[in-house]
Amino acid sequence: QLQPPPRPPAGDPLRVCISDLYKTGSNMCLSGKVEAGTITVGQKVLLLPSAEQTTVKSLQTRGEPTRSGVCGAYMDSVLLPVEPQFCAIGGVICDPKHPVPVTDIFQAQLLVFDVDIPLMRGQQLMCYLHTETLTATITRLEKLIVKGKPQEKRPKCLQKGNVAIVNLQVSRKVCLEPKPAAGAPTSLSRLVLRG
Question: pTM of the full predicted structure?
Fold first, then answer.
C-alpha cells in the first residue's frame, strides 16, 4: 500500500498557487491549492508577482464556505478586494512577512529525459512551473553532473540521461522558491521543460 506524501507543517509561511481567477463585482475570486501554511478569513496576504497587499474576505472549499484552509486543501474560492491587474494565473498568495522570491533569471538542475536534438545555449523551451506555462531560454550550460559530482569542464550540449546545472531566463517574472537544503523540493521549486 502506498503511503501519502509528507505534507509541510502548517506553521510554514502561507503559499497558495493561483490556478484560476475571475472578477465578481468589485472583488477578485481566485482558486488554487494551499501548498504551505494556513489561509484564514481576515488574514492579510501578499499577491505576487504584483506585490499587492490585501485582506482575505471569504473562503470556499468543496463547494462550502469555510473560515480557513490548511496545507494540501484546494480552495475553490479565495475572495480578495483587488483589481484584476494585480492577479494572474501562476501567481502566488503568500504571507507578507515571508514573500516568495520573484525572478525572471534563475539557475536550475535538470535531468534530461528523451530529446530529439541535444539541448544547447540559446534554445527556447516551454516551461511548466507550478500552475504557470511560459517560455524559457537556456542562457548558459553551467556544469554537467556525473554520479553526483560536478565536472570541471562546461558542457556544450545536453543529451538523454544527462544531469546538469543550467541558467534559464523566462519570458516574465515568476514566483520561484529555491530548492530546500534538506527534504524534497516543493511545487514552487520544481519545473518541467519541453522542446
Answer: 0.86
